Amino acid sequence: MKYIRLNLNHFIAILSMVLVVISLQAKTPEGFTWNEIQAVNYVGEMEQTLIRTHDVYNPITDNSWSRENEQSEKSEKTEEINEISIMSFNVLYNTSTESTIKTITETGADIVGLQEASAGRIRSAGESLDFYSHSFDKTSGNMNENDTGILSRYPIISKMDDGVLIELPGEKIIAVFSVHLSPYPYQPYDIRDGKITTPEQAVHSAKRTRMPEINPVLAVIDSLINAGVPVFLTGDFNEPSHLDWTEKAAENEMHFSMAVEWPVSKAVVETGMEDAYRVARPDEVAKNGITWTTNRSANEVYDRIDFVYHAMPSNWKLDSVKRVG
To answer: What is the pLDDT of residues 200-235, one digit of tens each?
Structure first.
């Protein structure tokens, strides 16, 4: 089983609205770490291609795998790179394409997982940025056919229901996913409003709402991880994290003084993925990493519902995390 070797060093994460950026810098040809930037900005099956049943399948070593035969006028970026950034960006439906393009340009992101973005906006942004683009049809992991997509400075060589394979210079392949899970019922609001009074009720409601959506995505991700492919899962999950709603947080009168084992985040980390923000900032009380919402009101529930998860080779290390927006 091979890992994809990248001549990269830092994996920085920024998280604040719906804009997640990941940067990498070279250190030595033999060893490297990742810097993930996870940011949230509220201004804004692999069935046929890779996975057959749920067998472990490696698109790098399996000779039966073939890239999609797509021609592009974009110049091939074959020079060696020492930095790459991956961003998850919920642009909100009413944000203009021009603002979307400006935000991506200013962050310097190389790969962007988009939520609340129409196919037309994704295509137009890709053309303006000279990026490869793909918008997803309605699947379990996104809201509708005009909801999620990927923009990439580097070639998108294969497409899945909720993600893509991207080839970096040197024939290095990574998988990037973008999901947007159901916003309602939103259990923190139900806790606030007295509809949910126990952690068990919150977990039960959240499982019914989002586990059928995320499970098919995680089945594909699990196969990729087993094949040694670095995977990045970005998106607006519309559910808090069990790493935030802890006993420690409850004792500090956070999250309605309730500790909840939120099911989606638990299921993601059980695949072997890590929550970049919480890895870099393990103190959930001092660093809550709120991404929802920028709308200030006395009755609002503020929480972290936008994430970048990653599964990487053991010699890739998370370096730092920033939050912007």
So the answer is: 999 999 999 999 999 999 999 999 999 999 999 999
Segment holding 107, helix H or strand E: helix 97-107
Q: How many CA atoms lie within 13 A of 136 on its CB side?
A: 31
Strands 172-180 and 231-236: parallel
How, if at all, do strands 111-115 and 148-152 pair? Answer: antiparallel
The model carries a pTM of 0.80
Residue-wise pLDDT for 80-98, tens only, equals: 666 677 787 888 888 889 9
- The predicted pLDDT at position 92 comes to 82
Contact assessment for residue 178 and residue 149, using Cβ atoms and an 8 Å cutoff? yes
Give CA–CA dist 126/321, Å, rounded: 27
Per domain, the residue ranges of the chain are: 40-69+77-313
Q: Any residues with CB less than 8 A from the CB of 241 and at least 6 apart, and which?
A: 262, 265, 275, 278, 304, 307
Mean pLDDT (the chain) is 78
Question: Which burial class, exposed, middle or buried, applies to 156 when counting CB atoms under 10 A from its CB (0-12, 13-18, 19+)?
Answer: buried
Which comes out higher in pLDDT, residue 26 or 291? Answer: 291
CATH code of the domain made up of 40-69+77-313: 3.60.10.10
Please tell me the distance from the alpha carbon of residue 256 to that of residue 254, in angstroms, as a whole number.
6
Q: Which residue from 227, 233, 230, 258 is spatially nearest to 244, judged by alpha carbons? A: 258
Concatenated DSSP letters for 280-317? H---TTT-----B-S---TT---B--EEEEEE--TT--
Poorest-pLDDT segment among 71-75, 96-100, 316-320: 71-75
- Return the closest-CA partner of residue 34 out of 43, 42, 25: 25
